[in-house]
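Appendix B. Chain record.
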Amino acid sequence: MVMPQNEFNSPQPFPSCSWTAEGLARFISFLGPELQKLNVDVFFGTMERPSEKLVDVALLDPKASKYIKGAGFQWAGKRAIVGIHRRYPQLKLYQTEQECGDGMKSVKSLTKGHRPKMPWLSSSTTPPR
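Structure tokens predicted for this chain:
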């Protein structure tokens, strides 16, 4: 599996690669056929924003969507999971990054680390093994 760009819509203060959702969808329409020849799946993401519309742009694009087999979500992106799963139940969804709490090895830290998993459980999606 390949996710062409992590946090594609997050401009950073250091050298990075930012895309619009439309630009990433267009890139996937070129990348997809090449990876398909290699039997490699394309996943959309990683989504760190709670905007379902960012995922919809690619999944509603007929040239890109036929190559997208899944999507990755992290941090605030988890709030888009329920809607995406309802509209695209065949899409594989992955939690790609874990919120790690405060590093103090406490119950509070453990709770903070596990709370982000709740959208996966409440939306009947299956977290990766």
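Further analysis of this model is presented in Appendix C.
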